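INFO  loader      accepted 1 record
INFO  loader      residues=141
INFO  predictor   begin
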Amino acid sequence: MPFALLDSNVYIDHWEHGAHADQLDELRHAFIVRYSAVVLSELRRGAHSAAARRTVDALRRLATLIWTPTEDDWWRAGELVQKLGARRGWDTRKKRDVQNDALIALTAVRHGATVVTSNAADFELLGRELPLSALFLRARS
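INFO  predictor   done
INFO  writer      dumping tokens
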């Protein structure tokens, strides 16, 4: 069975708005879902309420196997972000935002996993530079 990594926006859309419920149910039957250290960190950083922190803490406890970027992933992510940012005139903030997406993408590529995200724009760009498999869920309207 293939592996999938869920991007933080998928969790947030689901937790805050109930989005993607049917798609997530289908994903659980089609993929083995693994957890990204980058995504867990993003979720923890953004958990501002006590309830949100409890939800993220519970997810972390459930994550028996967490995939972490390697030293080489960090190096390649810096190169990718620099290259894409130079082409597109990104400011420092945009580069910082895409850095995490690049780390998620590189980790997924290394494990042969599919990234599941509602952030099509950044992952489509990364997919032009990497042999990335991505599944794009429709962002919440």
